[in-house]
Write a structure and sequence with these properties.
Radius of gyration: 14 Å
Order of helices and strands: HEEHEHEHE
Number of domains: 1
Number of strands: 5
Oligomer: single chain
Low-confidence stretches: 15-42
Shape: globular
Helix content: 25-40%
Mean pLDDT: 79
Largest sheet: 5 strands, mixed
């Protein structure tokens, strides 16, 4: 998915710009790989969530299953907190090595986490016909 690659590159760029602030945020650049943890120390990261088109808001995911790639499991608690902050309590993050988008298309889950990205990358991420793209700010620790 080309849009996701662009979002990851934008996030890496945003991260590298913050490194120039005399190390105040203690950020190390990601290598951009799918198994890379998102940069820590950014004031606002956003996770991109894709769902069926009938899901109108993040809160509508309350109690539903959301796919999460096993490589992103390190941010599972952050995602759960951000979902709860939007009213999507009791959601179940289903971690697997199977591609989250494939699990959504196959009907195994009602939504899938695409990636954690910078606010600019999230804003620039395009809508996808037949799906709803939701942007959820991560709650700061």
């Amino acid at each position: 998915m080309a849009a996701l690659e662009v979002a990851e590159k934008m996030t890496n760029h945003d991260t590298l710009e913050l490194i120039g602030n005399n190390g105040a945020d203690e950020i190390k650049p990601s290598d951009g790989g799918n198994d890379a943890a998102p940069p820590r120390g950014l004031d606002a990261l956003v996770f991109l969530l894709i769902s069926r088109s009938d899901v109108k808001s993040v809160a509508a995911l309350k109690g539903l299953n959301i796919a999460l790639d096993a490589a992103q499991s390190s941010v599972q608690a952050d995602i759960r907190a951000a979902l709860a902050a939007t009213g999507a309590t009791e959601t179940r993050l289903s971690v697997s090595d199977v591609n989250p988008i494939d699990r959504l298309i196959n009907g195994e889950v009602q939504a899938a986490v695409l990636n954690v990205v910078s606010p600019g990358a999230a804003e620039a991420f395009p809508e996808i016909k037949g799906f709803k793209v939701l942007r959820v700010p991560l709650s700061p620790r």
